[in-house]
Every structure is written in C-alpha cells, then in structure tokens.
C-alpha cells in the first residue's frame, strides 16, 4: 500500500491520469486530505467511483502515533514524541508565539553529523524520514490543536488557529534528506495542501553543501538557517565535524552566490558555548566572515544537557558578544529557546536507541 501523505499533488495527478481519469481530481483529493483531514479522502462521492475503488485498493494514510506529550510550564510549548509505523521515534515541538504557531519538525531519526553540543547527534543516524512522515508531524499537530481549544485560549490565539510556520530544526540534518524534505515542502506550500507560504518555512543546515546545491536547484527561494557556531576553521571542525568536508568559508561563498541570484536573507544560528566560542574576538571574526552576506544572526545560549560538560556563557558575556555585532551594523538578536523545562529546546531533542 502507498502512503498518500508521500504524494505531492503533481504525483497524485499523474496517478489519476494513469487510471484514465482527469488530473484535476488530485485537487479535491488533496483538499480533503489536508484541509478536511480525512483519513480516506477517496470516499465522499466527489471523484469517479472507479477511481475511488482503485485508490482504496492502492492507498492508505500512515500516521505516526503521539505516544507522549509534554507541555512547558514556562511558555506553553508542547513536545510530541511520535512513534512511527516501523517502531522508530522522533520528536516535534509546537511553539506558540505572538500571532503565530510555529512547529519545529524532524527530518531524520537521529542524526549523523555529531555536533558536540547537540544531544540528537548522540543517537547516530538510524534513517531518513519519508515525505509523508515529515508532513504527518504537521498533520498531527493541527489535529492536536483542534482537539485542545483550551490551549489556544491559554496562549491567547484565535480559536481556529493552526500551524502557520515551520522550522526544520528538529532531529536530523534536513539537507542529508533533500528528497524527503523537498517533497514535504511542496505539500506544505501547496494551495490545496497546507497552503503555507514558502517564506514561513525555514530549513536548518549544519553546512551540507551538496544538500544546499540540491535544494536551491528545486526551491531557489527557500529560506535557509545555517548553523555557524564558530568561524575559526580548526575550532569549528572540532565542534562540527561537517566542517572538515565542507569548510564554512565555502558554504558562505555559496550563499552569497545564491543571494546574487535573488535569494532572500539568510538566518545564521550561533550557539554560544562558555570558553569555546563566546569571546569578543570570536564576535569580530564572525562579523568579518559574513561581510557581504545579507544575514540575520540568532545568538542561542547553549541549552545544557546532563550528558555534556559544555555550559552556557553568563549574561554579560552574551551581551558583549551581541554588542560587537550590533555596532558593526549586523542584525542580531539573542534568542532563548522555548521548551527548556521539557527538554524541547535547540539541541536537546533525543530519544532512546531503537
């Protein structure tokens, strides 16, 4: 059986044509799947009976199960532990913000990159998620929101609010799974699907240059969030092994090239680690390295985990670092992660080995 959530509308249109039916039926099927959240969208009499019978025999919707949910007492963020159909587990985090709901989603079960400050990397990479497994995280979050109107009232958002922003910043390196991520994004932005604007989706990467080239080829205007964490080549290679394969300077040059082709501003993420990358000298080096790049920098104080000896700088150090960048005319803000009390913050997502 084919998981319908793996299908883009173009792919579903091709299927309709293969069954000797007009491609336009894919529009209604998509609408019933993602807007009406039907688990059997071929029912209802809006497509020819022969097509409905063929789909019933060939398709199903494979949804993970929310096996655990944890709500932050500080900011009302909700972390979901999802059990996949093969027994694998991933996490996603629903974050209420002023006038929007952001969902942080995973793209892999585990991660192969091994960044020293990230708890997910301790799992290693178990496998990529399919497009359907990525999309299902949004599907389930919207279903949960609809079933918990009191939560929307608590976070002071309108009763019919649904996920409005997506960040691929959960478990995994998204650009290690370009095919799955791109297909998922096409469903997320499809007007008959979730109908999200591409500008409301950010894809994080540790600097996977092959993946950057591949995703820009298919989605030239996609918004990337590059994890930097140090611009010193030796130091960055120690904390982010991916730098040994694709040095940061090469990745930044590629992003400059894409901006010359019309890409929008890049988000740079910089996790601040005490005694590692938090000096004013580090800040000056960062400013020099990103010269000529239209970028905004999020400084993220390290979210500590018990398995690591790395710690977060004090507030004075963080502010001094931020001031160096601000004085050089760089857009910069200190961003404290949501869900820290439920281990849902950046770098904290991890599940037990499968």
Largest sheet report: 10 strands, mixed
* Count of the separate structural domains: 2
Strand content: 15-25%
Shape designation: globular
- Rg is 21 Å
- How would you classify the helix and strand content by structural class? alpha/beta
How many strands in all? 14
Spatial order of the strands in the main sheet? 3-4-5-6-9-10-11-12-13-14
Distance between the termini: 25 Å
Query: What's the rounded overall pLDDT mean?
Result: 92
Unreliable stretches covering 5 or more consecutive residues: none
Within the CATH hierarchy, at the fold level, what is the topology of the largest domain? TIM Barrel
CATH superfamily of the largest domain: Aldolase class I
Number of helices: 11
CATH architectural category of the largest domain: Alpha-Beta Barrel
Please give the CATH class of the largest domain. Answer: Alpha Beta
Helix content: 25-40%
Q: In sequence order, what are the helices and strands, one letter per element?
A: EHHHEEEEEEEHHEHEHEHHEHEHE
Description:
The chain has 11 helices and 14 strands. It has 354 residues and is of the alpha/beta class. The chain has 2 domains: 2-60, DNA polymerase, domain 1, CATH 1.10.150; 65-342, Aldolase class I (TIM Barrel, Alpha-Beta Barrel). The strands form 3 sheets. A 10-stranded mixed beta sheet has the order 3-4-5-6-9-10-11-12-13-14, with helices on one face. β5 and β6 (100-104) form a beta hairpin. The longest helix is centred in the middle third of the chain and has 17 residues, at 131-147. The mean pLDDT is 92.
